[in-house]
Please model this.
Amino acid sequence: MTKRKKLEDYCSEMGEGNSYQVQSLVSVDERGQMVLPKDVREKAQINPGDKLALITWEKKGECQCIILIKAEELGDMVRGFLEPDVSNSSK
Model:
């Protein structure tokens, strides 16, 4: 008999002040699709028609993490990462 994991089983100890948490578990269907829960979509202000950039973090050739960012926010984030380098290189 296989023991079903609960959401808490996937959570690790998080210190005070950390801003990450497991919101929910989603399943991937046979076509590779998944549904973001309504409460997560509302909290993230994701609406029908919004574009999300899918970013992966790999370690030793294996995907360790998948991140979804609103496409409209991606440009601002990239600029935020690059601006300090661009400003320092012009000095």
Observations:
- Residues 35 and 65 are 18 Å apart (CA to CA).
- The radius of gyration is 18 Å.
- Strands lie at 52-59, 62-70.
- The chain has one domain: 7-89.
